[in-house]
Amino acid sequence: MPHDLFSLTGRKALVTGANTGIGQAIACALAAQGAEVICAGRRPCTDTVQKITAAGGQAEDMRLDFADPMAARDVFSGAGFDLLINNAGIIRREDSVNYSEADWDAVIDVNQKALFFTCQAFGRELIARGTGGAIVNIASLLSFQGGIRVPAYTASKHAVAGITKSLANEWAPHGITVNAIAPGYIVTNNTEALRNDPARNNAILARIPAGRWGEPSDIGGTAAYLCSKAARYVTGAVINVDGGWLAR
Ligand code: NAP
Q1: The domain containing residue 41 runs over which residues?
Q2: Has residue 159 been placed in a domain?
Q3: pLDDT per residue of the chain (248 residues) written in tens, 0 to 9
Q4: Is the minimum distance from the CB of 188 to ligand 1 under 6 angstroms?
Q5: How many whole angstroms separate alpha carbon 34 and alpha carbon 103?
Q6: Fewest CB atoms within 10 Å of the CB: 3, 14, 21, 222?
Q7: Which entry of 99, 153, 225, 233 is annotated as an active-site residue?
Q8: What is the similarity comment for this entry (predicted)?
Q9: How far apart are alpha carbons 49 and 69 in whole angstroms?
């Protein structure tokens, strides 16, 4: 087996929402495999850039706020990107009978609309360049299940799985793989409210065969694999990284 099968040396990646949580872990994992990583966030990704450069990797900070879902329209043109990780996402919890239009639109805009149009801008550039590349979208367990009190999030994450499969079909002839990772319950800001509620925390833990919440680094390695030559014939997959939750 060639020693560089998992290497990302010479590849340039954009990771959205790279200031914290899963996005930070993915940025660090790609950089550890040799990629140059542009860490995009609506807030500075100083901490992530510092972690990567302190470890000898290459990283830069970029402002990208999906309050405008088309914010990435001009990011890729002539910039030499090979890899795109659509990680930025939000969750708004409320009983469905009370769910507001404002919460619905906010979640769909960031998780679904911005994700698609960022893929579109990246795909246009790579197809014109003709060099191929890889997209990894961050989906969720809720791409497969209904969740509780998160109707817009569930709808958006089902859409992420669908967009991933649709683009994989269209762009395979251009050498662009499009895959998604469906994390289970991971220790980040997104799940803080659940972990702070002892009843919910225990109910969740009882359903995870691995017996623990996931760590952001559990997702980072999977993303690095999907960006590597080792995964060059993997496309249209939505990979569960959930400690066995969906298998139970
Ligand atoms: P997180 O710590 O809340 O990270 C979410 C990231 O998205 C942050 O960087 C956040 O920036 C960014 N973001 C939110 N709104 C944005 C906007 N308008 N423009 C640009 N960036 C924006 O939670 P996380 O768990 O790491 O979430 C990362 C991804 O994993 C999300 O897509 C989430 O749905 C998915 N996921 C998480 C879990 C889990 O258990 N944690 C499970 C399944 C899927 P700020 O820090 O500025 O808010």
Answers
A1: 12-240
A2: yes
A3: 556 999 999 999 999 999 999 999 999 999 999 999 999 999 999 999 999 999 999 999 999 999 999 999 999 999 999 999 999 999 999 999 999 999 999 999 999 999 999 999 999 999 999 999 999 999 999 999 999 999 999 999 999 999 999 999 999 999 999 999 999 999 999 999 999 999 999 999 999 999 999 999 999 999 999 999 999 999 999 999 999 999 98
A4: yes
A5: 39
A6: 3
A7: 153
A8: Belongs to the short-chain dehydrogenases/reductases (SDR) family.
A9: 24
- Read off the amino acid at residue 244: G
Which pTM value belongs to this model?
A: 0.98
Specify the pairing of strand 238-241 against strand 58-63: unpaired
Kindly tell me the burial class for residue 19, based on how many C-beta atoms sit within 10 Å of its own C-beta (0-12, 13-18, 19 or more): buried
**CATH number of the domain residue 198 falls in:** 3.40.50.720
91 domain residue, yes or no: yes
**Is 3 contained in some domain?**
no
Is residue 161 within 8 Å of 139, Cβ to Cβ?
Answer: yes
* Closest Cα to atom 7 of ligand 1: 88
